[in-house]
Write a structure and sequence with these properties.
- Helix content is 56%, strand content 0%.
- The chain is mostly helical and 71 residues long.
- The chain has one domain (3-59): 434 Repressor (Amino-terminal Domain) (Orthogonal Bundle).
- Helix 2 packs across helix 3.
- The protein is globular.
Length: 71
């Protein structure tokens, strides 16, 4: 379900533990997000979008455009 967060992480050669540290969660919790075993809370989704400089819609698969929205 959330394959894009894995792709974004791998594109930057980061490990799950690296993203988990940024999100202040365990590697296991982050792994469950990537596998779709756990829904991503809104605040975490926003942090991931900011970290990867993309939009939440891109992460959720609602658009193919990686560029973040302008404010």
């Amino acid at each position: 379900m959330y394959r894009r967060i894995r792709e974004l992480r791998e594109d930057r050669d980061l490990l799950q533990k690296d993203i988990a540290e940024y999100l202040n969660c365990s590697q296991v919790a982050y792994s469950r997000y990537e596998l779709g075993l756990r829904d991503i809370p809104t605040d975490v989704l926003m942090k991931l979008a900011d970290f990867h400089n993309t939009s939440t819609d891109y992460i959720l698969g609602r658009t193919k455009n990686k560029s973040p929205y302008e404010e």
